[in-house]
Amino acid sequence: MAALNIKQGSTSHSAYDLRDFHSDVVQSHTLALIVENEAGVLARVIGLFAGRGYNIDSLTVAETDHKGHRSRITIVTRGTVAVIEQIKAQLGRIVPVHEVIDLTLEGQAVERELALIKVVGSGDKRIEALRLAEIFRANVVDSTLESFVFEMTGAPEKIDAFAELMRPLGLSDVARTGVAALSRGV
Do 86 and 123 fall into the same domain? Predict the structure, then answer.
């Protein structure tokens, strides 16, 4: 059984910690888990969320250490301070989980997502879609006489904004990878 390391940024749970653990304010948190790359680990993590009624806004997972057989799971979830603390504690008790990192508490994190966005239209709507794609630095990866498929990377808010602008121009489909995130600095 491996030792568990829970990193929570510079804040600690001491008598002098002034954070309000009873706050009803719902916040978004990005959690990174370092886990054993073995069958059933992802199902156990997802089962924890489902079994307790927690929602997952975004989920990505991939092996990051081939020799050590470790994977990184990045989860974006929402909850009060108490709920987020409970989620982290419960994740830390799952045996194949080696580390739980709350990137939101670590300070600024770099978060990126990849999206494929299909827009169907003709005439002026096509021209406007291409103009907006250029402004947002979205690449055309497929084109027919009736549609475009744009590829875009960036912060989730940037992708949301682009998709909303494409809606009146003929947005027909969106596929997103989910957030990949790393803490900034050392």
Answer: no
- DSSP code of residue 182: E
* Percent of the chain clearing pLDDT 90 (strictly above): 82
Q: Which two tokens stand for residue 129?
A: 């879609």
Last residue of a domain, one of 102, 133, 151: 102
136 and 172, same structural domain? yes
pTM, two decimal places? 0.79
Alpha-carbon distance values, 55 to 30, 37, 87, 134 (Å): 13, 23, 11, 34
Provide the H-helix boundaries in 11-152.
Answer: 41-52, 81-92, 124-136
Q: How does pLDDT run across 20-66, given as a tens digit for each residue?
A: 555 689 999 999 999 999 999 999 999 999 999 999 999 999 999 99
User: Residue 63 maps to which CATH number?
Assistant: 3.30.70.260
174 with 163: CB under 8 angstroms? yes
Q: Which of helix, strand or coil describes residue 46?
A: helix
- Shared domain for 53 and 119, answered yes or no, is no
